[in-house]
Amino acid sequence: MEKVSKNFMWMSAANITNSLLSAVLFMYLARALKVEAFGYLSYASAFAFYLLNFVDLGLSTYGVREIARNKGRLTEIVSDIVSFKLIVACALYALTIIIALALWQQPALVRLLIAGSCLLVFTAALATEWAFQGVEKMHMVFISFTTSAVLQLGFIYVFVKGPGDVLKVPILYFLATVPIIAIFLRRLHFRLNVRHLDRARMRLHLSSSLIIWLISVCVQTYNNLDIIILGFFRSAHEVGYFSVSRRIVGGITALTVFLANAALPRLTYTFHDDVGQFRGVTKKFLRLSLILIAAALIPLVFFSRYLISITVGAQYLPARIPLNIMLGGVMMVLLNMPFSTGLIATGHEKAVLKQAAASALLSIVSNFILIPKYGMIGASVSFLFVEIFALTWIIWVYQRTIGLRFTAS
Known about the structure:
Layout: H1 2-56, H2 59-69, H3 74-103, H4 108-117, H5 120-126, H6 129-134, H7 138-159, H8 168-187, H9 199-233, H10 236-273, H11 275-311, H12 320-345, H13 349-401
Helix pairs in contact: 1-3, 1-4, 1-5, 1-7, 1-9, 1-10, 2-3, 2-9, 2-10, 3-4, 3-5, 7-8, 9-13, 10-11, 10-12, 11-12, 12-13
């Protein structure tokens, strides 16, 4: 359990540091760009982040699991996965340029922001933090996240001073990731295999990763599509308000995602060899989720007005109501992650996929019903409803497949 605790510590430190620096950056951009330009940037960013799932194809999570099983194949797995993801990123970015710049009937500023924001597909393809998670060197994840966040904050502070600089933001985001990507690829002895990629081996990788990828697509659908739908029916101002709520919610749930990444290799390793330790890790994960709910979420409901005023300014106070509604959904997310991570670690990806697909479908339907009439309030109610549904489903599946028994440790 000492190794697991150390993993949790480094992943928590990585997430907390990154979240704090990102929060400062978020506050600066919200104030510097003003509501309208910030709304346009948020809309473009939501589009880009949705696209990132089509670069990863579940290969990062799959890579963590495979490296945890066979650390001697580290360079081979990294070279295969990164090379393949780079090919996919090039194809997706070319398609995005054609759609965003030539075909999509949106204002020129929005199309250019989407083209710039989608440079993140190359960051996603070349990122290798997942490889260090597989060998349980979580301190490297801390170094990566901290370095990139510091560079992003520095670049934005120097070069972005007002709404007229909004087009610089996605370019600066991308440039800030380049140094750590280059250092990590060299450290992992990465070999580019674009022309000589082993197709049979990639088919084997993809046969296992695509289920994980479909889970990510579904989760991304009901975590980010609401901003895109809101952008179709409501003003850039309302998108800007809702983006503040979404960013706060995302910062909290990201901690649980990082904790899940810290636990995944250990859960994978111990399930067959030490079921007692497997259940102990799950219990610790669940306990941390409950602590976060009690220590952070419940107080945040009462102080959300002050948080918004202090961080991004009183002009964003309309974000308070959707934020308070969505915090109820975040509680469901925090309780969900220990069980869904355990199911993935033990090879029950298909069960998680069914839950994620049903939740995504429910989110799409409820958002299209609620957003046109109720705007960002409807989006936040939809989020809460879907997360209650997802938690109920995943606990039922976990009970049937693994059981809810935990060790006393």
